[in-house]
Write a structure and sequence with these properties.
The structure holds two protein chains of two kinds. By secondary structure, chain A is α/β, with parallel strands linked by helices. Helix content of chain A is 37%, strand content 19%. Chain A has a five-stranded parallel sheet, sandwiched between helices. A two-stranded antiparallel ribbon of chain A has the order 4-5. In chain A, helix 1 runs parallel beside helix 8. Chain B is of the alpha/beta class. In chain B, a hairpin with a 5-residue loop joins strand 4 and strand 5. Chain B starts with a strand and ends with a helix. Classes of the chains: A alpha/beta, B alpha/beta. At the A-B interface, helix 3, helix 5, helix 6 and helix 7 of A face helix 2, helix 4 and helix 6 of B.
């Protein structure tokens, strides 16, 4: 099946980049077709413009800056976010990507006479976050785990009704040992290898 | 009190800017020293750059003159007021980027000798968040509200122990009437007067 990796870190030599490489290798080894967007390398502009914000209800969004991302979103069955957690959530670059790329007609629709949006990314049945935190799990719980809730809830409602979410996080990274980081890389690899395993064998089909 | 009002909306004619001008007028009338940081008007850069990330744990993490100026203002602040629209349950990217690029080590928080995070904004004893939502109150409160958590919990951990927090929210802003909007502006005015 098709996996789309959205990667966000300014430093190509970062641990987050190593996580992305491991995840992509494992997905490819499991026989999936993988596409990747590197938001910093693309020079993506994360600030939503005045025109975009006032037109967000417009039915048609054609913008060469976001067309490729939208195409990938429609293509994929697994959506994988790889990013460092800053201020308890996604980096501004990734937040801005969500602001600008999840537009009407691609990610959601507002049917006539309805108040609530309906998700359009029904092709996505796996939603994965791979991230690292400077602080501990306890501090993240106190802060409200906003990054996890954003993907597991706000993005999840746009996807397939039975989409499964996977949360892979390394806490306390600033004080972690090399062994712990290696173990986390292995965990990411194993989890990505069996992303589509299921006891019934039905998972991963296009519903 | 020295109050810093941070506004993040791309449209200067938006309801969020009406909220901002109401808040600033009310605060000034109450005798506070108000500084407004309108992130879109100042064209604040959203994303942390490679160089800034490299310098983050160094002695001089503030490379951008605008971020440095904002950091100086924030360090002297006694109250922080955030005014923004909630997009995808959280802060607009420009405001999230402001937290990342201005609230660096030495400003928002400090590392102690064991590399543990300690509060940095010890002069701040008041946080107010004002936000507009497209979703309903029930949905936001039960399931999402990540922006509120970022401002009221994550940032709160770095301000004075006795910080008081207030949250003013207008839900279903796309469907609400003029009366509801005006009533909300009144609420903002009252809250700012009694800051």
């Amino acid at each position: 099946v098709n996996a789309y990796v959205v990667y966000c870190h300014p430093d190509p030599a970062s641990f987050t980049a190593a996580l992305r490489d491991r995840a992509m290798d494992a997905l490819a080894a499991a026989g999936h077709e993988v596409r990747m967007s590197d938001l910093y390398a693309d020079g993506f502009e994360p600030t939503m413009s005045r025109a975009e914000s006032s037109d967000f209800l417009a039915p048609d969004h054609h913008n060469p800056e976001i067309d490729e991302y939208c195409e990938n979103l429609r293509w994929c069955n697994a959506l994988v976010f790889v990013y460092p957690t800053w201020w308890s959530g996604q980096p501004a670059m990734l937040t801005g990507w969500l602001d600008r790329v999840l537009v009407r007609g691609v990610a959601w629709e507002l049917p006539e006479g309805r108040k609530r949006i309906t998700g359009q990314l029904t092709n996505v049945s796996r939603l994965v976050s791979i991230t690292s935190h400077g602080s501990s799990k306890l501090i993240n719980v106190i802060e409200g785990e906003t990054g996890r809730r954003l993907i597991g809830r706000s993005v999840r409602v746009l996807c397939h009704r039975f989409a499964r979410t996977t949360w892979l996080a390394l806490y306390n990274i600033d004080r972690s040992s090399l062994v712990e980081r290696e173990a986390f890389l292995d965990r990411v690899e194993q989890r990505m290898r069996r992303l589509w395993w299921s006891p019934t064998g039905l998972a991963g089909r296009r519903w | 009190m020295r109050v810093v009002v941070v506004v993040a909306h791309p449209d200067p004619d938006s309801f969020n800017h009406a909220i901002a001008s109401t808040a600033v007028a009310s605060l000034t009338r109450a005798g506070h020293a108000v500084t407004v940081l309108d992130l879109y008007a100042e064209e604040f850069r959203t994303a942390m750059s490679y160089d800034e990330r490299q310098a983050y744990h160094s002695d001089r993490p503030l490379l951008d003159p605008m971020a440095e100026r904002h950091a100086g203002i924030v360090k002297r602040a006694e109250a922080l007021v955030f005014i923004y629209p909630t997009w995808w349950s959280t802060l607009p990217a420009i405001l999230k980027g402001w937290l990342e690029r201005v609230m660096v080590p030495g400003v928002g928080f400090v590392f102690d000798e064991h590399q543990r995070v300690r509060r940095g904004l010890t002069d701040v004893r008041r946080i107010v968040g004002i936000s507009t939502y497209g979703a309903t109150r029930l949905y936001v409160r039960a399931l999402t509200d990540n922006g509120r958590r970022t401002v009221m919990r994550a940032l709160r951990l770095n301000t004075a122990l006795a910080t008081r927090r207030s949250w003013l929210a207008l839900y279903e802003v796309d469907n609400c009437s003029l009366d509801q909007r005006q009533a909300f502006l009144k609420r903002v005015e009252r809250k700012m007067r009694s800051l």
